[in-house]
Amino acid sequence: MAFRIYTKTGDQGKTALFGGRRVAKNDLRVEAYGTVDELNSFVGWLRDALQDTQHRGTLYEIQNRLFTVGAALASDPDKHPPTPDVVEEDIALLEREIDRMDAQLPPLKNFILPGGHTSVSVCHVCRTVCRRAERLVVALDQTEAVEPLVLQYLNRLSDYFFMLARQLSHDLGVEEVIWNTRKK
Predict the structure, then answer these.
(1) Which one, 11, 16, 81, 138, has least CB within 10 Å?
(2) pLDDT tens-digit map of 110-154
């Protein structure tokens, strides 16, 4: 018999973690790994939209790390969950990329809004979904311990997306969209 994508085991609003434990589909753990999966999808969209091989390569590495973070979050913590494939070097890579881009850009003097180019806007979507994933993982960590490097990685990753948005604006020759307050 061929493998079927549907199992019907989730029809009653429950899903299985790696390890077998069944939880509600709106369980905080499921929300956390689901949001990491959503972020990974947006990162794939961004990667497909870019021509620069260095950015594409970094985004590919990010997608691989996000997949393993999601797998770790989807594991039953009582069944010896897999160690997330996030190491200090992954965070260092993001920091090097942030510093490299920051050195090429004019100093930030204003708050900026998402926009200016589709790729820039997708970067900001990645940044905000990453922040949501981070908030959910922090909430999960308050009830069940999460590997500290996962929290660090998500925190640094949102900073990376902010800088990548600025870098893409620069590379594409589009002006950053400056936030203007309402004048009274």
Answers:
(1) 11
(2) 999 899 999 999 999 999 999 999 999 999 999 998 989 999 999
Query: What CATH architecture does domain 31-74+85-175 belong to?
Result: Up-down Bundle (1.20)
Which bin fits 20, alpha (ψ -120 to 50), beta or left (φ > 0)? left
Q: Any idea what DSSP says for residue 10?
A: T
Domain ranges of the chain: 31-74+85-175
Q: Which two tokens stand for residue 83?
A: 């160690």
Instruction: Dump strand ranges (E) for the chain.
Output: 14-16, 22-24, 112-113, 177-178
Q: Looking at the whole model, is its pTM more than 0.85?
A: yes
* Cβ-contact 70, 36 below 8 angstroms: yes
